Amino acid sequence: MTRHLVAADGTLTDINGANVVAEEIDSTRLSVAHLVPHILTVDLPQGDRVNILVEYSCHCWTRKFDIAEHAGQMQIMDGTRPRAFCPHRFAASVDLAGLLGTLPQNRLYLTQSDRNFGTYNATMMLGDGMAYTAFFTLRPHKGRFDGIRHKLRLYVESAHHRPQPENGQKVKIAVVISQALKGKKVKYFRR
């Protein structure tokens, strides 16, 4: 499958650098240079190290397609749902891999509505209480990536600025990893 590179202004180029124009394109055919899959190694409190394959959804750099607002723009298809390139999400996503690299130091929470984990760096909150927040799932996934064995797959479903702190159940990354290695999810407890 031919993949196209997405630039910071939303334009697409092919592997030869030629511009690509499309009315609609499947998100799986697109690549963002700073959001390529990679291995994240997390040191756990007991001294164990866990390698995790990290992959990113197009929701990290797109937003819901609005016919009135995005008329004439290319539709980026996430399955059957159309999305539009978002320059603000794209620019913010440059720091996303760095945010994930600091998971042991950041706040993680599980919300009842999202059923996945959210994380943000509390030291990087904006003055209006907004923080760049990543929402991800973590599941067993054994394999090799770039020659490195991994046991888990962290899939970033979305990342954007939102008000913080988020209501939800606080949880530590060591607990999340421990449960994921067993093929279990962290249980949400109602308060």
Average per-residue pLDDT, rounded, comes to 89
Beta-strand level of the residues, as a percent range? 35-45%
In spatial order, strands of the major sheet run 6-7-14-13-12-11-15
H and E order: EEEEEEEEEEHHEEEEEH
Q: How many helical stretches?
A: 3
Gap from first CA to last CA: 48 Å
SS class: mainly beta
Please characterize this protein's 3D structure:
With 191 residues, the protein is mostly beta strands. It contains three helices and 15 strands. The protein has a seven-stranded mixed beta sheet. Strands 3-2-1-5 form a four-stranded mixed beta sheet, with no helix packed on it. A four-stranded mixed beta sheet has the order 4-9-10-8. The mean pLDDT is 89.
SSE map:
Blueprint: E1 4-6, E2 12-13, E3 19-20, E4 24-26, E5 30-31, E6 38-43, E7 49-56, E8 62-64, E9 75-78, E10 81-85, H1 87-92, H2 96-101, E11 107-110, E12 117-120, E13 130-145, E14 148-163, E15 169-171, H3 173-181
Parallel strand pairs: 1-5, 4-9, 7-14
Antiparallel strand pairs: 1-2, 2-3, 6-7, 8-10, 9-10, 11-12, 11-15, 12-13, 13-14
Structural descriptors:
191 residues; mainly beta; seven-stranded mixed sheet; four-stranded mixed sheet; 15 strands
Briefly characterize the structure:
By secondary structure, this protein is mainly beta. It is 11% helix and 42% strand.
